[in-house]
Amino acid sequence: MTSLDFSSLPISPEQLEALDGAGFTKMTPVQAESLPLILERKDVIIQAQTGSGKTAAFGIGLLNHLNPRFFGVQALVMCPTRELAEQVSQSIRQLASRMSNIKTVLLCGGKPFGPQRDSLRHGAHIVVGTPGRIEDHLQRGNLELKGVKTFVLDEADRMLDMGFAQVMADITARLPKNRQTLLLSATFPEDIKKVSRSIQLNPLQIRVEEPARREKQIVEQLFFEVQKHERDRCLLALFEHYRPRNAMVFCNTKQQCAEVARFLRTHDIEAAAIHGDLDQRERDQVLLQFANDSCPVLVASDVAARGLDIPLLEMVVNYELPRDADTYVHRIGRTGRAGESGQAFSLVTPPEAPRMRVVEEYLSTNCICDVLSSLDRDPNYQLQGSRVTLQFDAGRKQKIRPGDLLGALTGDAGLSGGQIGKITIAETSSYVAIDRLALRQAMNYLANGKVKGRAIRARRLKAQQ
Fold it and tell me: What pLDDT shows up at residue 308?
């Protein structure tokens, strides 16, 4: 039987120390199966759902293959969305935290082009990015890939769905033939098999299904048959009846996302939308508020939500059923994780009934249907986050550390440690989640108080209007 201890792998003491510091104690099934092959530099296909630990698997592998003394790009990780690219780059930086002078550069849209170009000119070991922005830098001569040892296509199925097939092929053509290629995909349709055949050499396939089976067992799925004009009323009734602590509502269009979030806010449910029309700063702030319990409801399109790792989500609602069963399974897989139960509800109008049949066929089960009148309404219902987020106008560039903010709030401001949640330090700003009831006390201090010996402006972040 394969040991699940990371120490059983041929990786450096620095890597083991970083894994321990990040809270990785035992390998997940996908890591136990794939890491020995990745470390042997084999081409590997990994088919597993979000949350299975596959990011750490390829992150450990590519770091193990690096030569820190060669300051050129040795690993390229391509992701379909900005959010996933940012999440992956953060994970790799964490895994590399005990290694000396490892530089990771993030290349994605929504961020200024100039600083990315300058970072590449100063050299980098690892590049993580989206296809469009990677191609832009290649065409402008900012990015050199001839030293790449490891190429990772993360969520390759979504990249194909988004129309990046040709861009992926153009980028791959610039890579050295003698490299390791890792292809990760939640699904493995014929298009992905073709991609694999064109870019990999004798790949070994790892398929881990346990998470999907577990989700099936503990996620309550219910379909509500409604007329088109009843969608909003049914959505509101679901919140009033089930009273979740947090939820994700999936929509099929950007306009739908914005309209549904606005509708929920007008009915005293704190909600924020995430879709392609938001700039990167807005997207980052929405995700941060959702992750730190400041905004309990996220209304998202599939592309914007892809790659988000959100634990302990109580409820998922399909405002409109997706057009394929794979997407449906991916959506409801957001809830019922880590052994917790979850609820997934779908609103289905008569013209969408064929989509429900597709889901039934895919899951080999009958969909259970209900009606709006079965839900108990509560005209006084409200849903707010347990915390609020404070934004400070200083970050890494101003040498601000989490301990500086924590010290100011628990020292002179008089808040207890339990009233302070997640602290996030960005380039030129910082964010602190605090208990809603402590907001006035914190703001009274920050109006005239100091952080790290100087006055720093702070304001409360709110869901975008």
Answer: 62
The structure's pTM equals: 0.61
In this structure, the answer to whether residues 421 and 356 fall within a common structural domain is: no
Residue 102 CB partners (closer than 8 Å, separation 6+): 63, 66, 68, 96, 125, 126
Domain boundary among 165, 191, 208: 208
Task: Show contacts of 251-255: CB within 8 Å, 24+ apart.
Answer: 251/299, 251/300, 251/301, 251/319, 251/320, 252/301, 252/302, 252/319, 252/320, 252/322, 252/323, 253/301, 254/301
Instruction: Answer whether residue 382 is part of any domain.
Output: no
DSSP letter string, 54-85:
HHHHHHHHHHHT--TTS-S--EEEE-SSHHHH
Q: What is the pLDDT of residues 153-166, one digit of tens each?
A: 998 887 886 678 88
CB-based contacts of 391, cutoff 8 Å, min separation 6: 285, 429, 430, 431, 458, 459, 460, 461
Q: Domain total for the chain?
A: 3
The secondary structure of residue 232, as a DSSP letter, is H
Mean pLDDT of 345-372: 91
Give 40-85 pLDDT, tens digit per residue. Answer: 999 999 987 766 788 999 999 999 999 988 989 999 999 988 778 8
